[in-house]
């Protein structure tokens, strides 16, 4: 497991842990605390979770259906797609939610007028981008470390949890 490949992959593992923490904890709180979505804005947390899951499932299905084509093109285009989708998601979230929304209830304005549907698009994009990364990480670990897959996956989950 002491290889340069694992060291390089560790940066990706760490990133997936950060974005997992963001969309499973921080983002939902931001939606619930943004009062421009209505005084009972916490009721949208369930829809947020459903849309993140829908993005994950859409990505997983898409990449499994297009399996032969993605094998020909390699993993790079899918990882690049995940990167671009996450850039779009984070930018959308940045301009759509108030800066104080992670800290508590706020009625402050965002860069644009906060839009609930745009927030839901951000939820879907977070899930889809995460599926781009995770499908490729699992594929890489299973291929590169076929003889030592259990320790490789343990390192992945350990670094992701940090």
Could you walk me through the main structural features you see in this protein, from its secondary elements to its overall organization?
- The structure is a single chain.
- The protein has 162 residues and is an all-alpha fold.
- It has one domain (4-161).
- Helix content is 75%, strand content 0%.
- The protein is built from six helices and no strands.
- It has helices at residues 4-33, 45-65, 67-73, 76-96, 116-144, 149-161.
- Helix 1 packs antiparallel against helix 2.
- The chain is elongated.
- The mean pLDDT is 91.
- It is found in: Membrane.
- The chain crosses the membrane at residues 44-66, 78-97, 109-128.
- InterPro entries: Ion_channel_UNC-93 (IPR010291), MFS_trans_sf (IPR036259), UNC-93-like_regulator (IPR051617).
- It is a multi-pass membrane protein.
- One of its GO terms (cellular component) is membrane.
Helix count, DSSP H or I runs of 4 or more residues: 6
Mean pLDDT: 91
Can you summarize the main beta sheet?
Answer: none
Strand content: under 5%
Report the radius of gyration as a whole number of Å: 17 Å
Structural features:
162 residues; mainly alpha; 75% helix; 0% strand; elongated
